[in-house]
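Exercise 7. Given the components listed, write out the predicted structure of the assembled complex. Treat all entries as one system.
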Amino acid sequence: MTKMTYREAVRAALRKALRADPRVFLMGEDVGRYGGAFAVSHGLLDEFGPDRIRDTPLSESVFVGAGIGAALGGMRPIVEIMTVNFSMLAMDQILNNAATLRHMSGGQFGVPLVVRVATGGGRQMAAQHSHSLEVWYAHIPGIKVLTPATVSDAYGMLLAALQEPDPVFIFEHATLYPLEGEIDETAGLVDLNRAAVRRAGRDVTLITFGGTLGTTLQAAERLAEEAIDAEVIDLRSLRPLDTSTIVDSVAKTHRAVIVDESWRTGSFAAEVSAQIMELAFDNLDAPVARVCSAEVPMPYAKHLEAATMPQVEGIVNAARSLVPHHG
Amino acid sequence: MAEFPMPQLGADMSAGKLLRWRKAAGDHVQRGDIIADVETDKADIEIEVFTTGVIEKFLVQPGERVPVGTVLAVIREEGKPLTAEELRIMTTAAREPIPAIPEAPAPSIAPTAIRPAVGEARLHISPAARKLAADLGIDPASLAGTGPGGRITLEDVQRAAQAKAAQPAAEVTLDRPARMRQAIAAAMARSKREIPHYYLSTTIDMSRAMAWLTQENLKRTVEDRLVYGVLLLKAVALALRDAPEINSIWAGGKATPVHDIHVGVAISLRGGGLVAPALHNTDRQSLGDLMKSFRDLVQRARAGSLRSSELGDPTITVTSLGEQGVESVFGIIYPPQVALVGFGKVVERPWSVEGQVVSRPLITATLSADHRVSDGHRGGLFLAAVDRKLQEPEKL
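Answer.
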C-alpha cells in the first residue's frame, strides 16, 4: 500500500500506462511544459518527451477529434480537458463521432479513447469553470462515464479505462486532487460496472458519486450521532449504472437520499431516483430525496458558492426527514 | 319428508341465528304456521313453514348461527314414519361454514387489488408499508400513520403485526345496528355495482285524492281513518298490474315478471337503519285493509317481529320521505327487485289548470328502475299510470 494524493494517483496511473504500452500518449491544454492545469502531468514531459506528452492549441474540438482519429488508427490516446465547461466545445466530436462510430461502421471501427475531464465547484472558479455536467455525458449510449471519488479509484479506474475498446470519460472532481489516500498498486483492474458501498448502514441509503462522496460520508457520521444509521453508496460509474447495488441497499433501508452536485432539474440524481422508483417501488417507505446544487450559475463569492452546493447540513436534514420520528 | 331450511330473508342475508322454536318435535304444523324466530342482521323475524306435516326432528338448536339454506328441521308427512336411510341422511347433513363478511376480502398482491376503487380516499401509505400490510393480511386503512405528514410507514405496519400476533384472534362481533349497517351497505353497494339505474320524476296533482280522503275519513271511525300514504301504495300496486317489467325479480341473469304484487314499504327503525317488508297482494287489499296491514307492519318492524315471508317477498319497494320534509327521493333499488318508487311530501304550490294558476297540493313521484329490464319509455308509462290512479281515488 502506498500513501499519495489523488493527483499523484492519476499521475502514477498515467506513468504506468505510458511505460507499459507504447500506443498510449497524453494530450491536452498545458499538459506538457506547464505540467497540467491541476499539475497532474507534472514531470511527465521530461520523462516521456513531447511525442507522448503533447501540448495542444486551445481548441477542444480539435484535440478531442485528433484523439478520436488516433484511437481509430490504433493508438491509446488519453485526452485531458481542463474543465467540463470547456468540454462543450468538443461535444460534437464526442456525441457524433466517438460515441457512434462503432455503431455506424457496423462494428468495424472502435474508438478506444480515454478522456479525463476536471469537474465541479468549490474552488471559487465561478460560473465558467465550476459546473458538474457529468449527467449530460451519462445520457449518451456508446461511452462509459466514470467518476472516481477516492485515491484508489483515481489510479485503478484510469488503468481499467485504457483496457476498454470504446470511449471512456473520467470525471475528476477538482477538489479531490490534493486529498490523500492509499492505493494498492498490485491490485488487479477495477470492475467498472460496480458501485461501492463506502459505509454500511440500515436506516437510510445515501447515494452519491465524485466530489460529494466526502461530504456525504461526513453527513453519515453526523447522522450516526442522532442514531440514524446511514449506508453510503459511491456510484463510481454513471454509465453503466450499477442498479443492483442501489436496489439491494434500498431493499434493506427502504429510504434513499441522492446527493449530486449538478443542478437538480434533469440531474443524475433524477435518473437514480427514477430507477429506484421503477426497480424498488415496493421497498420504499418514503419518497426518494435529492440534495443537488441550487439552480443558478455557480457564484464566485465563497459563501454563495457554498450555499449553492450540497453541504453536510442539507444531506443530514434530507435523511432526517425520511426516517420515522426524525421528521 | 321435507327439509325446513334457514330462509333467505332478503338478498343481503347470508346467515341467521335461531332464537327459539315455536313448536316442539312431534307437533303438527300447517303451511303458514310460525315455527321459529330467527335473528338476522336486520331484525328478529318470525319464520313461517311452507309444508304441512309433523316435525320429526330439530337439527339446529336455539342460539346457533347458521348460513342460509342450512336445514333447521325435518318435517315428515302425517302417518308416514321416516325410513332409516332418510334419518341417516338428515342427521349427517354437512353444515356449511358461514360465509365471511364480504367487506373484508382476502388480501391480494395482484396489481388490480392495490389500485383503490374509484372514489375511495387515497390512503397515505408508503409503497413498502402497503406491500408488507398486504403480505401480512393487515388492512392498511385500520392503521394510524406516524410518518412524516401522517404517512403510514413500515414501522406502523410492523407494530400492528406485533400487536396482532400478541393477542389471540378475537371473533369480530358487531351489535345489531352495526350489522344492519353492514347488511345495507352490502345490498346497496351491490345494487349500484350491478344495476344500471335510470331515474324518472313527475309531479302529481293530489287535490282530488286529498279531497276524497277528507270526505272518506269523515265516514270512518278514528281508528279506521286512512292516511294518504295508503292511497299512494294502492295506486302504485294497481299501476303495476299493467307493468310486468317493473314488477319483476332479477335472478340468473334475467328478469322474471312476478304475478303477485307485494309492495315493500321502507320503514326506518328507531335504532337506525331500515327494513322494507311486503304488504302482501297490495293491489287486492281494500284501502281499509291496507291501512290496517300497514299500521301493523310498521309496529312489528319497530318491535322486531316481522315474518320471513314479509321480508323475502317484496316485488318492488316504495319509499316515502314526505314526513321528513323531503320533496323528492331517488332511491337505490333493493336487489333482486328491479324498481323503486319514491314519494316526497305533499306541498301546496301554484299549478296551472286550464290556463288559470291555482294553488294545488302536489307530490313528486319518482321511479328508480333497472335499465336491464325496462326502458324510460316503459317507466314513464308506469309513472303516468300512478298519476291516473290518483286522479280517481274512489276507484282505489
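Discussion: Chain B is about 30% helix and 25% strand. Residues 109 and 134 of chain B are 7 Å apart (CA to CA).
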